[in-house]
């Protein structure tokens, strides 16, 4: 009888803990249903579902104007790696991405250092540099197409200073890709400037002042104090630029239509739209899009891992 009396409170306490645990679990489920489920549903409908549908199409020879659709398995993917047009677009996209990742990062850091001061002039200059970011890509493309035309403002200025034969910025196959890379770098420059400025304003002044007292010059202070603390800003800029450049389409469509010549500036995204909507080979275009998605995902994940490791080491 004594044993039963002693064990009853223990069992009652365990029962209360179990009930509280179930109550908390139910509360978490209700909270997720109320706040998390709508966002997850939107994500599933507008991101996961289109990817799944595209992958399904990539395993077929789907063409809406040439039914019936047949299952072809991985044939589309095998064709991609022997398709000279796709391999050329992969090379073009890689070159464009490397330029767009490097140039705005380097130039944006330099400009941010120069603008990291107080005053109305510096505030106005920040607005000037960020303005291209808020403009439509189509508007930017049209403006630069007019400026870089053979008779455009840039070539007129070159003739005015004595250049007899200005280059064909958009008509020369050797220059067109680099001209587009320059336009995209110019548009993305403001984003890098703003991110680096935010990072610079987060650098503790005590550290730079201590380094100055220790006799470190401006370059040494920047290299040893400021630059390590800008690691998060570098990570953000690099990943955003990488993703933005690799999926570029609108600038190519408006400025060069993939030319001059055959595929000189045609990116993977441009070829996806051309293959799917113009040639109506939607199964093959879907395979191309899935490969592009995988390349972007892997490249972004590797870049993020490497740069995050650098942040931790610092």
Automatic annotation (TrEMBL):
Subcellular localization: Cell membrane
Bilayer topology annotation: Multi-pass membrane protein
Biased composition (Polar residues): 1-10
Gene3D superfamilies documented for this protein: MetI-like
Family stated for the protein in its record: Belongs to the binding-protein-dependent transport system permease family.
Region (Disordered): 1-24
Family annotation (InterPro entries): ABC_transporter_permease (IPR051393), MetI-like (IPR000515), MetI-like_sf (IPR035906)
Principal cellular location given in the protein's record: membrane
Pfam families, alphabetized: BPD_transp_1
UniProt name for this protein: Sugar ABC transporter permease
Domain ABC transmembrane type-1: from-to ranges: 90-303
Xref: CDD domains: TM_PBP2
UniProt keyword list: Cell membrane, Membrane, Transmembrane, Transmembrane helix, Transport
Compositional bias segments (type: Basic residues): 14-23
Domain of life: Bacteria
Keyword Cell membrane in record: yes
């Amino acid at each position: 009888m004594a044993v039963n009396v002693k064990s009853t409170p223990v069992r009652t306490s365990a029962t209360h803990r179990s009930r509280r645990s179930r109550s908390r679990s139910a509360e978490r489920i209700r909270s997720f249903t109320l706040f998390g489920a709508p966002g997850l549903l939107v994500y599933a409908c507008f991101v996961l579902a289109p990817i799944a549908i595209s992958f399904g199409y990539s395993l077929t020879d789907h063409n809406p104007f040439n039914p019936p659709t047949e299952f072809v398995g991985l044939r589309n993917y095998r064709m991609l790696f022997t398709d000279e047009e796709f391999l050329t677009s992969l090379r073009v996209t890689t070159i464009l991405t490397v330029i767009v990742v490097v140039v705005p990062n380097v130039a944006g850091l330099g400009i941010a250092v120069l603008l990291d001061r107080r005053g109305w002039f510096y505030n106005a200059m920040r607005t000037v540099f960020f303005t291209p970011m808020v403009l439509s890509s189509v508007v930017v493309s049209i403006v630069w197409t007019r400026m870089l035309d053979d008779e455009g403002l840039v070539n007129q200025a070159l003739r005015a200073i004595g250049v007899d034969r200005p280059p064909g910025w958009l008509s020369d196959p050797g220059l067109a890709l680099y001209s587009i890379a320059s336009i995209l770098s110019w548009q993305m420059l403001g984003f890098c400037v703003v991110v680096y400025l935010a990072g610079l304003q987060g650098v503790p002044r005590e550290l730079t002042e201590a380094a100055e007292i220790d006799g470190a010059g401006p370059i040494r202070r920047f290299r040893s104090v400021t630059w390590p603390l800008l690691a998060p800003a570098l990570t953000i800029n690099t990943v955003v630029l990488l993703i933005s450049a690799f999926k570029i389409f609108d600038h190519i469509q408006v400025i060069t239509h993939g030319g001059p010549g055959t595929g000189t500036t045609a990116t993977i995204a441009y070829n996806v739209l051309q293959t799917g909507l113009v040639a109506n080979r939607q199964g093959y275009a879907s395979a191309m899009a899935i490969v592009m998605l995988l390349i972007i995902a892997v490249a972004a994940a590797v870049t993020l891992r490497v740069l995050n490791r650098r942040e931790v080491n610092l």
